[in-house]
C-alpha cells in the first residue's frame, strides 16, 4: 500500500483494493474454500434425500444447483465487511476522498473472484453428477456467471446493513436478502431448464444481464449508504 | 409556504394531532366496515359461479390492497427520513411495519380459505400468492433488522435503507414471479377498465376498502403516539401528561 500515490484515480483505487482483497484472502484459504465445499456437499445431499433416479435428478438439477449456489454465496457474504469494520479500515475508506461505492465495487468484485468464480468452475462437474443434459452445461455456467455477480452485489447491501450486528448476523442477513434474490433464481434456473429441454435460453439470459446492470448501478450506492451508517454506529 | 411542515418536527404537536385523529379514523373505519359487511354479507346476491364463498373477497381484496399501500407509505417515509432526517417519518415507518405485515398475513390466510373451495387447494405456487408471501418476508426482514440493532439511531437508518432497497425490488420480484407462474384470476377492479363486477357487489367492496384504509390510519395514529411516548419518555411534556393521567 505504501507505493500508492497520494491522489489516486478511481481505476488505480479499484486495482489496488482488488490486489489487497485477493492478497488477504489467499492467506486465509478457509474464507473462499469453505463456500465451495458447502456448495458441493449440499448438492450431493439431494440425490441422497430425493432418490438416485436419473430422471428425477435431471428434472430438479437446475433448481438445486441454483439454490445451492445462492445459499453458498449468502452464507459466505456475511463476513464481507466484518473484518474491515472491526480493524478500522472501513473507517478509512469512508473518510477517504474517493467515492465509497467504488470501494464497494472493488470488494464485491474480489469476492466474486473468490466465491463466485470457483462455483462456475465446479458447476459442470456437479451438472454431470446430477444427470443434467450436457447441452445445458454452457448455459448453466453462463447463468451462474451473470447470476452470482448480481447475488453478491445485492448481498453486499445486506452484509453492510448487518455489519454491526454481532451474533446471529448471518441468519439475519439471509432473511433480509433472500426475498430480494428471487428474480435471479427464477431467471437463472429458468435458463438452465430451458436449455435442458432444448429450448432457447436467450430470453432468460438477457433478463439476467438486465438484473446485473441494474444491480451494478444501484446496489453499490445502497451498500455505501449502509456502510456509512455502520461506521457512524461503531 | 412550507412553514407548516416544521410543526411536524415538534413531538408534542404531532402527539396532540395523532391523539385527536385516532378516534376520528377509528369511528370512520368502524362505520365503513360495519356497513360494508352488512351490504356484502346480507344484501349482495350470491355469485352465479362461486356461490357464497366469493364473499371472502370483501376481506381479502382490501387487505391485499393495504399490504401494498402500507409498504409504499413505509418506503416513502423511510426515504423522507433518509433525506431530511425527519424524526416523524421514521416513527411512521416503524409504526407501519407490523400493521402492513398483519394485512399481508390476513390477505394470505383469507386467500387460502378462498382457494380451498375455488381451486380445491389451500395453497398453490401462483404468482400473486408467491409475491404476497415474499412481501410478508420483506416486512418480517425489516422488523428483524430493526429489532436486532440496539442503537435506535442506527437501527432507524439501516431499516430505512432496507425499506428503500425493498421498494426498488418489489416490482422486479412481482413481474419475475408473474412470468414464472400464474393462475390467479385477474384483478377485479382496475382504474382504467370497467370493473368486472356488479354494482351490488362493488359497493360493499369499495366500502370495505375505505374501511380498511381508515383502520390503517387509526392503527397508525395509535402506534405513532406510542412511538413518540417511547422516544420522548424523558421529556418534561411527557412527564406532565403522565402526571395529569392523560396518556
Task: Describe this protein's structure.
Chain A contains ten helices and no strands. With 234 residues, chain A is mainly alpha-helical. Chain A has one domain. In chain A, helix 2 runs antiparallel to helix 3 (54-77), helix 3 runs parallel beside helix 7 (137-161) and helix 7 runs parallel beside helix 10 (202-233). The radius of gyration of chain A is 18 Å and the shape is elongated. The model of chain A has no long low-confidence stretch (mean pLDDT 89). Chain B has one domain. Chain B is 77% helix and 0% strand. Chain B has helices at 3-6, 11-43, 57-84, 87-119, 127-148, 152-180, 199-231, 236-243. In chain B, helix 2 (11-43) packs antiparallel against helix 7 and helix 3 (57-84) crosses helix 6 (152-180). Chain B is globular. The two termini of chain B are 33 Å apart.
Number of domains of chain B: 1
Q: Please state the average pLDDT score of chain A.
A: 89
Structural class by sheet pairing and helices of chain A = mainly alpha
Number of domains of chain A: 1
How many DSSP helices of chain B?
Answer: 8
- CA radius of gyration of chain B: 20 Å
- From N to C, what is the helix and strand string of chain B? HHHHHHHH
Number of DSSP-assigned strands of chain B:
0
| Spatial shape of chain A | elongated
Q: Which range best describes the helical content of chain B: under 10%, 10-25%, 25-40%, 40-55%, 55-70% or over 70%?
A: over 70%
Identify low-pLDDT runs of chain A: none
Order of helices and strands of chain A: HHHHHHHHHH
Q: What is the beta-strand fraction of chain B?
A: under 5%
Q: What is the number of strand segments of chain A?
A: 0
Q: N-to-C terminal Cα separation of chain B, in Å?
A: 33 Å
Question: Roughly what fraction of the amino acids of chain A lie in strands?
Answer: under 5%
For the largest beta-sheet of chain B, the strand count, sense and barrel status come to: none
Amino acid at each position: 500500500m505504501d507505493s500508492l500515490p497520494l491522489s489516486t484515480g478511481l481505476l488505480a483505487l479499484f486495482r489496488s483494493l482488488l490486489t489487497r482483497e485477493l492478497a488477504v484472502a489467499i492467506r486465509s484459504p478457509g474464507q473462499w474454500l469453505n463456500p465451495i465445499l458447502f456448495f458441493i456437499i449440499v448438492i450431493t445431499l439431494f440425490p441422497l434425500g430425493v432418490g438416485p433416479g436419473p430422471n428425477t435428478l435431471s428434472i430438479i438439477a437446475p433448481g438445486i444447483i441454483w439454490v445451492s449456489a445462492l445459499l453458498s454465496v449468502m452464507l459466505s457474504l456475511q463476513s464481507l465487511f466484518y473484518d474491515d469494520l472491526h480493524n478500522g479500515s472501513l473507517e478509512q475508506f469512508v473518510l477517504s476522498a474517493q467515492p465509497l461505492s467504488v470501494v464497494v465495487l472493488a470488494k464485491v468484485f474480489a469476492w466474486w473472484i473468490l466465491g463466485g468464480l470457483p462455483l462456475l468452475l465446479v458447476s459442470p462437474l456437479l451438472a454431470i453428477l446430477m444427470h443434467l443434459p450436457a447441452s445445458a452445461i454452457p448455459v448453466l455456467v453462463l447463468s451462474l456467471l451473470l447470476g452470482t455477480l448480481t447475488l453478491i452485489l445485492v448481498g453486499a447491501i445486506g452484509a453492510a446493513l448487518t455489519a454491526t450486528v454481532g451474533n446471529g448476523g448471518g441468519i439475519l442477513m439471509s432473511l433480509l436478502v433472500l426475498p430480494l434474490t428471487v428474480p435471479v433464481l427464477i431467471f437463472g434456473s429458468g435458463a438452465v431448464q430451458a436449455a435442458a429441454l432444448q429450448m432457447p435460453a436467450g430470453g432468460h439470459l438477457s433478463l439476467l444481464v438486465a438484473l446485473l446492470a441494474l444491480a451494478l448501478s444501484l446496489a453499490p450506492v445502497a451498500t455505501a449508504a449502509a456502510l456509512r451508517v455502520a461506521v457512524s454506529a461503531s | 409556504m412550507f412553514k407548516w411542515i416544521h410543526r411536524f418536527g415538534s413531538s408534542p404537536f404531532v402527539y396532540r394531532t395523532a391523539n385527536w385523529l385516532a378516534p376520528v379514523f377509528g369511528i370512520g373505519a368502524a362505520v365503513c366496515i360495519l356497513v360494508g359487511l352488512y351490504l356484502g354479507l346480507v344484501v349482495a346476491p350470491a355469485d352465479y359461479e362461486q356461490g357464497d364463498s366469493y364473499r371472502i373477497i370483501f376481506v381479502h381484496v382490501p387487505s391485499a390492497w393495504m399490504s401494498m399501500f402500507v409498504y409504499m407509505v413505509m418506503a416513502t417515509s423511510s426515504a423522507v427520513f433518509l433525506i431530511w432526517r425527519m424524526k416523524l417519518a421514521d416513527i411512521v415507518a416503524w409504526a407501519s411495519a407490523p400493521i402492513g405485515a398483519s394485512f399481508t398475513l390476513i390477505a394470505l390466510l383469507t386467500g387460502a380459505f378462498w382457494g380451498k373451495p375455488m381451486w380445491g387447494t389451500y395453497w398453490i405456487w401462483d404468482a400473486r400468492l408467491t409475491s404476497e408471501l415474499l412481501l410478508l418476508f420483506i416486512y418480517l426482514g425489516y422488523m428483524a433488522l430493526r429489532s436486532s440493532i440496539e442503537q435506535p439511531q442506527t437501527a432507524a437508518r439501516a431499516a430505512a435503507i432496507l425499506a428503500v432497497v425493498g421498494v426498488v425490488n418489489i416490482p422486479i420480484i412481482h413481474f419475475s414471479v408473474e412470468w414464472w407462474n400464474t393462475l390467479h384470476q385477474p384483478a377485479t377492479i382496475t382504474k382504467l377498465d370497467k370493473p368486472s363486477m356488479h354494482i351490488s357487489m362493488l359497493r360493499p367492496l369499495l366500502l370495505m376498502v375505505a374501511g380498511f384504509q381508515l383502520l390503517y390510519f387509526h392503527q397508525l395514529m395509535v402506534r405513532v403516539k406510542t412511538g413518540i411516548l417511547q422516544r420522548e419518555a424523558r421529556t418534561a411534556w411527557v412527564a406532565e401528561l403522565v402526571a395529569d393521567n392523560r396518556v
